[in-house]
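Weekly puzzle thread! Below is a chain. First person to post its structure in token form gets bragging rights.
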Amino acid sequence: MEPQKKKYYTYDEWLSWDESIRAELYGGMLVMMAPPSQRHQTILSELHGQLWQFLKGKPCKVFPAPFGVQLNNSEDTVFEPDIVVVCDKSKLDGKIFHGAPDMIIEILSPSSIRNDRIIKYRKYQQAGVREYWIVDPEHNILQVGVLHEGRYISSMFDADDVAPVSVLDGCEINMTDVFREE
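Winning reply:
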């Protein structure tokens, strides 16, 4: 089923749409998502691959987009982050994750900069997402926010760095491989 044109949508309506529709709900507002670029997908694949390899055989799991996250069981807000790391599998219902994942990664695209840097940053922080990565493919920069006393403490990394994942003890991401141009 496709979304009908109206001004307010709920989680139940979002859930009923065809899986090929890439859209998020921001307080009941429908936000359509443009298809990702090849560079975006290459970065996503590398990040997912490194995290998946680290988590293989461990209790936490990593999910690449499209994968829905309903923060704090909000009936009118559902995001589809690029990558989600989940350690509390009781919040998975076979379709989406309910609550605050342990880690979220968003890869910036021209149409998502404002949402990822401002709206989602605030929402993830308020919901208690413990670690939020914003990857900037245009400038080869990673901004990492680690939740401390309800606020993100940010660090920056570039293509020459190895970035630690604070919510996954011992996990480090090689940013040279992430930002490699092919």
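Puzzle host: Confirmed. Bonus trivia for everyone else. The longest helix spans residues 38-55.
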